[in-house]
Amino acid sequence: MEELEYKVLDDGSLVKKVIIKNIRPCIATEGKVRVLMELDKPLEEVITSLIFKYPPGKVNYVKKKNILTLSIYNRLITLYPSGKVTMNKALDKEDAVEIITDVMKTINQTYDDLDSTHEDNKKIEDIDLDISGIGPLNIYKCLPQTNCQECGEKTCMAFSMKILSGDKFLDDCLQLQEPWHQDQVECLKKTVGVEMMKIMGWEGY
Amino acid sequence: MIELDSSLIIIDRAPYGYEDAFSGFYICIACLNKEIDSDVLLLGDGVYSALKNQDSENALNFPSVEDLTYLIFPEGSLFVHEKSLKERGFMAKDLVEAAELINEQELYEILISKTKKTAFLRI
Amino acid sequence: MEDNSQKMLTIVLTEGPYRSQYADIAYEIASSALYKKYRVNIFLYMDATHIPKKEQNPHSFPNVAQKFRKLMKQGAKIRACVRCATARGHSCTQKSYIPGITITSVYELAEWIKKSHRVISLGD
Questions:
Q1: B118 pLDDT exceeds 60?
Q2: Which helix (H) or strand (E) holds C33?
């Protein structure tokens, strides 16, 4: 099939265009299509920082190959250092382009942050610790642990699992907003860091 | 009722010379879309399928097998037999990004980890 | 005899008839399995999509299409890959096959794999 080029972000700092290279199956049964795309720049520099832009449960990083898979928008999106991107479960090419444009915005934001906070770049050795170190118990320790159910979950433990998978946000915990739970908020800052708290949906008081 | 829940597609012919590599990857993709775990094992001349920078579309007017290697990761793995690759004069750096080079021991581990519920298909 | 009717065997063929005898081997295996009351599926992939062409007239060899006709009478399900068949000129509209063969996508094979107890592939 012909490659199709889409110029989606005119003023993107790193990536502006996406080329659709391949769609399988071309026999359009099942309503699910796998798409192979290529962005106009390699992603080697930003992949390790992109990990921190999504909840840990949505991220799968193969350190040996610097390949990142995001489990978002009900599909798997895999980013390769070369700039190639694959997506499963796309409805069609327009749907694929729409979703990838969103991801490209995050890529560009991450690239901008890289430039401005060069000294804060985490070393690759630190990344393993961060991702695998954050489990539901770490989050649970920093919650009020009252099982009040105001967040919609039966227990604080269930809530902490949903936080990791990205299905609930820290702001859903109304108790955390109360001034007498400031210690818990500090605990979260120490455990996952302010940036990750924001990704987990913490907007502050 | 589900009897078999995974498949291993074994390809030992080079792409473009034969349709086998292309068709084998297709079966893997169909299995993955039907929620069956599926991996591709490249042995012998099959390892050529995992070389990067293939340009069959321009050179031969044939669809690219390299593109298909991208479409099976991450749900499926692409295993490349190291000995076959070295015999043919290639190295890890010549391979597509998603390929995993495996030695004899790792090949053995992969095969014994496959349960009775795996379909082995040599295409 | 044991009740084998719950068990399913799927055979994948990738070679055409007469040059190699994989179709004949598949016939023998499928016949035995059907005799023992197993359920048998045969998926025709790549050159094997030539196997069920009608009006075959081999001079010295047994007629492979007839063999497959027999298998279908005994209850085997035989499907051909649409991509491979149409590439080789056997389209659904042409009706170039013996009756009873369904032309379908490779997803059918994936479905069969899920439901089978054993899957074997025969080819070079």
A1: yes
A2: helix C22-35
pLDDT per residue as tens digits for the range C84-118: 999 999 988 888 999 999 999 999 999 999 999 99
Based on C-alpha coordinates, what's the Rg of chain B?
Answer: 14
Which is higher by pLDDT, A145 or A115? A145
The mean pLDDT value for C4-27 works out to 94
- Please tell me the distance from the alpha carbon of residue B21 to that of residue B58, in angstroms, as a whole number: 19
Q: Is the dihedral of CA A56, A62, A64, A67 positive or negative?
A: negative
The answer to whether C82 contacts A27, with C-beta atoms less than 8 Å apart, is yes
Q: How many domains does chain B have?
A: 1
C chain contacts of residue A34, beta-carbon cutoff 8 Å: none
Mind listing the pLDDT tens digit for each residue in B44-101? 999 999 999 999 888 888 889 999 999 998 889 999 999 999 999 999 999 999 999 9
* The predicted structure's pLDDT at residue A157: 84
Q: CB–CB of A51/A68 below 8 Å?
A: yes
Residues of C in contact with A25 (CB under 8 A): 105-106
Model ipTM value? 0.86
Question: What does pTM read for this prediction?
Answer: 0.81
Using an 8 Å CB-CB cutoff, list chain A residues near C83.
Answer: 27
Interface list for A 18-47 with C (CB within 8 A): 25, 27, 29-30
Contact indicator for C11, C117 with CB cutoff of 8 Å: no
CB contacts of A29 in chain C (<8 Å) are 105, 107
B30 → closest Cβ in C10, C110, C115: C110
| DSSP secondary structure letter of residue C6 | T
Cross-chain Cβ contact C117/B3 below 8 Å: yes
CA-nearest residue to C105 within chain A is A27
CATH of the domain at A52: 3.30.310.10
B111 lies in a domain? yes
Examine the fold and report which residue of A59, A92, A123 is the final residue of a domain before the chain moves on.
A123
- Could you tell me if residue A33 is inside a domain? yes
Domain that holds residue A16: 4-123
Position of tokens 């250092």? A81
